[in-house]
Amino acid sequence: MVADRIHKTLDTKSEEHRAELKRLGKQAKDLPLSPNVAVLDGPSQITGINTLLSSDKTTREDFVFYFDRLAALLVERATENANFDAITIKTPPPHSHPYNGLCVSGEISAVVILRGGSILETGLRRVIPDCRTGRMLIQTSDRTGEPELHYFKMAGDISTHNKVLLLDPQMSSGGAALMAVRVLLDHGVEESKIVFVTYIAGKRGLNRLMTVFPDIHVVACRVVDDYEERWVENRYMGC
């Protein structure tokens, strides 16, 4: 009975999500990027790493190394606007001087959109070693061509967290991202506390996401005009 109830709940969420996608249509096609979208551009070092990641001559070992570097930078950017409290500490003895610093107010957690989101976890751990991490499994239906929610598990107190990072290395149509955000909202997470972290985002899908949920934040490394097949996790995992 419990399993049947879970399946019915997941099916209901998937049906509601497909209806929401149909209502969106093509209205977000030509919109400018939202100010809540941050793109890691500018430094030539990032452009150089992107060049290596995009090259077919880059070995898998090098791809993993440089992708993990960018993943850490993405997570750092995603958490830089978290709330902080002032705190005074003492430096180690023998001098023990006071130092006026900051500490994060509340908890920053993450939710991985499987399977691809798992490749961002190394970068996440380099920035937040003790980060509590949930999971969502969203797959495209062969019958409808739309994303369906098959599984999710998150912290019971996720609605109280300072920031909740959604991790997915590549977003095209935005369907999975829309569903993932909807699940977080259903669990009491405030829209403004959600940060979608991705390596590549399709512009149309990104605008689609921000049209429906204008108060979330997105951090991406690249924004592309056209849809791209999901290739990032395949290069990272070697399969």
TrEMBL record:
Residues 45-223 form the Phosphoribosyltransferase domain. Gene3D superfamilies: 3.40.50.2020. InterPro entries: PRTase-like, PRTase_dom. Pfam families: UPRTase. It comes from the Eukaryota. This is Phosphoribosyltransferase domain-containing protein. It comes from Aureobasidium vineae.
